[in-house]
Structure formats: structure tokens, C-alpha cells
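[Meeting: bench + compute handoff]

Bench side (C.D.) handed over the final construct sequence. Compute side (W.E.) agreed to return the predicted structure before the next meeting so the bench team could plan truncations. Sequence as handed over:
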Amino acid sequence: MNLRAKVNPFDLDQPEAYARWRAAKLASHPRRAEELVVDVADPRRLTLAERGAILALCARANMAVYRSPVTAEDKALPSLLGAQLGLHRLDANWLADEDGISSIAVAQEEGGATKGEFIPYTNKPIKWHTDGYYHPKARRIEGMILHCVRHAGEGGVSHLVDHEMIYLALRDANPGWVRALMAPDAMTIPERADEQGVARPAQSGPVFYLRADGGLQMRYTARTRSIAWKDDAATRDAAAFIEQLLAGPQPWIFRLLLQPGMGIVANNVPHERSAFTDDPAQPRLLYRARYLDYVQDEWAQVPQEEVAA
């Protein structure tokens, strides 16, 4: 049942719609990381059952974890997988490879100085964030795939959280906090400058916003530097509440160590990564694909005979 079809549970003026959505969300949400895992034979060619299981988990929790025996260094895998799940518009950021997919590994000194300035290309821990939180409205990242080719020798554990659960906790605690975080100037990322001048202009935007289909997305970073929260009490208190929430033992914060052949498909949920130590013989390597699309069942709109063909 699509609870967003006729009503908007994320509208603060629709408390009854929210109450129904909340009850359904809590009843269906996974309780353990293991419940997110879908075994697939080949992510590049999902069976209908595999695809359906991934889509169902993304509908329930905004994320799914696939587990496969495919461990080859195949850069085409994320794109082929994404195309089966409604993910087409890759965000080819400037640090991505020519195909738009980022190879996430510790940058080497030789030829790696530029990437090495950015934490994803180091072995340092990464705080809670959504991908592309510094992007403008026209380039908001709504979907992502993270595929593991090789894991670290030690560490590199991911933590994942469904942003709808953060919204639920916030709204239950204080609806005014939700209103503050949906303001268009709730969170501003200051400009980034380099030797050529302004590499990225300042970017303001909400923390929570609605997609075109009425679904909820989140734009967030736990960084304390290079971020400016709106200077009002409600926004400051809401940001502090999220920070405290994510630091606590919430049952809906999932801990996961990706193994080779595993990957995450998500509607750009907040995530963090622990520090790690590489095995020099087999350094950690993940492929990251970021999309301007969210996970959706496009085939549901296509006649079944065409799908079968």
C-alpha cells in the first residue's frame, strides 16, 4: 500500500496521515542488519525475485544490501545494477572516473595528492553524512550504490540509518524541529576555494525535503567545520537532537562490514565509516555510484509482456 498516494504524512498539518504512516513504518521496518541482506547470483542481471526483494527493502527502509559471488573488478556493475532499479542519471563529480563511477580507495602519494585531500580517499573515519550534501537543488543526490571489490585488512565498518526513522524521532519529540529543518536555509555549506578561486559556491538548503513523488529525502552532515546552521533556537536544537540520536544505541542504526561481492543500494541514507588499516597486498576498493534518481520500480508502469521480453 502506497501511503503517499493521496495524503502527505510529512505535512505537519496532516497529523492523522502521519499517525497512519508512523504505525506502518514501525511495523514494517527491519530490526537487524541481517534483514537488509538479499542474496543475488549476479547484480548485473537480477532475477525478478531478487529485484523485487531489493525494491521491497528500499520501500521499507530506503536501503538494501545485496550479497553476491561476483568479486571481479567490473566497473560496469554499479551502472548495470542501477538501471534495473530506476537509477540512471549518474552524478559524474569531478573526482569520479571517466565512466562516472568513483573508485574509493586510499589515494597513493604518486598522482593521488588531489584525491588524498578528501576523506573518502583516506583510511580515516568518516562522520555521518548523506552524499552530495553540498550540491545545489538541481543536482541533489537521491540514490546511491556502493559495491565492495576488496575489504580492508582491518576496520572500515559502515553504519547506516534510514532517514525516515530520524524524521519520525524528530517529529515525535518536537514537530517544530521538523519545520525548522525543512526550511530552505536550514543548513549552509560555505564555499570551497582553491588556487583558481571559488571551486564550489556556498550552498544553502533544507535538511529534509520531499521528492517529486512525495517521498522523503535528507541532506545532512555531522561535520562541525565547513557548515553553518541557521542561527535560530529551533534549528540549533534540532541539529543537536540528531547528533545525539546518531551517537546513541538506536536499534535502527545498522552496522555492516561489506565483504567482496556485497553492496548497498539506497535512497542516499545517512551513513558513516570507521577508520581502517589496509592489507598492502589487497588494498580496500569500493565502487561508488551516485544518482540524481531514487530507487523505484519503473517496470511496474510497463506492460508485463514487454518486461518478459
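W.E. noted at the follow-up: The two ends are 28 Å apart (CA to CA). C.D. will use this when planning the next construct.
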